[in-house]
Every structure is written in structure tokens, then in C-alpha cells.
Amino acid sequence: MPDSWIADRTKAFDSSGIREVFNLASQMTDPINLSIGQPDFDVPPAVKEACIDAVQGGKNGYALTQGMPVLLDKLQARIDAAYGHADRTAFVCSGTSGGLVLAMWSLVNPGDEVIMFDPYFVMYESLVRLVGGVPVLIDTEPDFSIDLNKVADAVTPRTKMILINSPANPTGVVASSDELRGLAELAQRHDVALVSDEIYREFCYDREFVSPAEFNDQTIVIDGFSKSHAMTGWRVGFVHGPAAVIETMVKLQQYSFVCAPQPAQWAAAVALEVALDEHVDAYRIKRDLLVEGLAEHYDLVTPGGAFYAYPKAPGGSGREFVKRAIAENLLIIPGHIFSRHDTHFRISYAAADDVIERGIDVLRRLA
Ligand code: PMP
After folding, report:
1. How far is the CA of 2 from the centre of ligand 1 (A)?
2. Which fold, 2-43+276-366?
3. What is the pTM of this model?
4. How open is the CA angle 67-70-73, to the nearest 5 degrees?
């Protein structure tokens, strides 16, 4: 096959970092696995039943492009009650990832700059490059907080979007209300689109979740059921923001993802009614277990949310440290996958307590 068959836009990024980890992991048998970005609890029973009922009841065809009313009306009502913005419309997309792709297609022209924070969720940089945009990375070390002066300095006439994720993957850090307000106001001042990935919003352990949409009514919020309800394989997300942006995203969804799976949307409508406190409490305890286990041995910013911790790698290189961990049968993720810097590693504590404890043992030994 001629090399020229593969479109140029796909060559602006690669997935070698992740492949490297998968290759190492494939040689492990029964690892202590603290690498996985999905909850270790199962989909709530009522949600499973709603999905089975939908399938048995013949709700298997295409969904409406913007989402089934059973789910969309509930989402819109909640969003209206939470924000009361005149121009805030919701639609249902195929996972948060689907929402992110549609946001990039809809908003970013070739050459447009997208400000994001390093370390960032793996997909962000590649998605920006895929649409010909230019990722502008703002360093957040050592405490992974947002320095508003750095953001202000990074804004240029080509800045189109600021992409924020709190609670964050991979650090677990929750941005403060002041940081989010500052960012929201800065975006507004510069007429820049603020996109907020809120997929971990339910997992906040030390304070209430705050959305930048509270301070900027044009904020485009991307959310979903993957993490909150352990529905990663069901592909249901949603986006809310200014109607003109949402209409554009829905138009593009029509010609790409088409819709989120219909049975999963009926189930997601039930998921909205399920209390998550039990899981959030359990994850707070797991967070505490991990942080206490590592506190004396690692340079670690206490994560306030999501289910990740992002310590500094002993010896300096995340890549080299992860190789040592894998030799001890512990699977964790090197930080260079999420960052320009190879200085940290990511632990996911979305795992059984005994697995976390075994992981802590290995990490203490390796420190
Ligand atoms: N955003 C962040 C920050 C994530 O960590 C993930 C999943 N790892 C996603 C988006 C994508 O989630 P999904 O497409 O399953 O909704």
C-alpha cells in the first residue's frame, strides 16, 4: 500500500507512548493493576435493568441525533435549574470523547491555538492537532494549580479555546473556585471559548464541585456517564452550552457518530436518579489509603477528586520508574503520556482495597 494513502492530518501525533505501556503490560501475568481509568464498581442494578428493558422493549433503533427526550429533557431541566442561563442548550453525545471530538470540529480552525494545562488528558493534544489546531501547554507544576498570569500571557489573537478539566486526569487535582472564576472571566474578556470537561464532577472529596459555567454563561460543558456510573462501554455523554455551538455539534454528530446508543440513553435517564454517595465515599477512603501509604515516601500533591494520584518519580524519570514498577508486577502509567515532562507517574486507585495495599507495598519498596 502506498504511504500516501494515510492522510497527513493523522501524522501530526502518534500513540507510541501508550503502545509502549500496553506492550510492557502484555508481558505481565496478573499484575497489581493501578493503571485503569474506569471505576472498579459495576453499573448500578437499576441502570442495567433499564437497559435490558429498553432492549427487550424494542428501543433498538437510531436515537434522535440530539438525544432521546427521556434523557435529554431531564438533563436540560437539571441544567436550567443549576445555571438559569438564557442561552444554554444540551444534547446527548457518544461519550465525553464524542463531545470532545465534536467540540474540536465545531470550534477550532486550522492554525487556531487551544490553551490547555500540562499535564492533560491524553486525548486533548491529539484532538487539537487532528483538526489542525495548535496546542498551547501551560505548565502547572509543582502543585498543578492554574496560574492565571501564565494563561493571560499565553493568549494571542489566534487563541480560540481554553480547555479545562477539573477534577483532573491524570493529577486528581480539583481547581479552586478562584482559579475557575479567574479563568472564566479571562475567557470572557478575550472572547475565547471555554470548554470544561467535567467527567469527574461527581468525584470530589474535600469540597463541592464548581463549574466555570457558574462564572461564564458561554462555557461549553462536556460531561458523561462513563465514570460516575461505571458506564464506560455504553458511550453516553452530554454537552451543554450556547445554542449556536450545540446546533453545530449536533449537525456534525449527524454525519459522524449519528447518535449515542439508544438503549444506553434510556438507562442513563434512570442513572440520573441513582445516588452515588456510597461510591464517592468509598473512593474518598481509597484516596486516603493511598495518600497515607505514600505520604512519607513520595512527593505527591493530595488529589481532591477523580481517582488518580500523580507522584513525582524517584530517580527523576517516570518512564524509567514505571519499568522498575513493572518488573515488580505493578502496572502504573508514566507521566510523559500526559505531559511534555517525563517526571511523574499516574496511579489509578479505582481498584479493590487489597490491590491498592499491594501497590502501596511495592511503591514503598521502590521509593
Ligand atoms: N475526559 C477525561 C478527562 C477522561 O479521563 C476520559 C476517560 N478516561 C474521557 C474524557 C473520556 O470518557 P468517555 O468518552 O468514556 O466519556
Report:
1. 34
2. Aspartate Aminotransferase, domain 1 (3.90.1150)
3. 0.97
4. 75
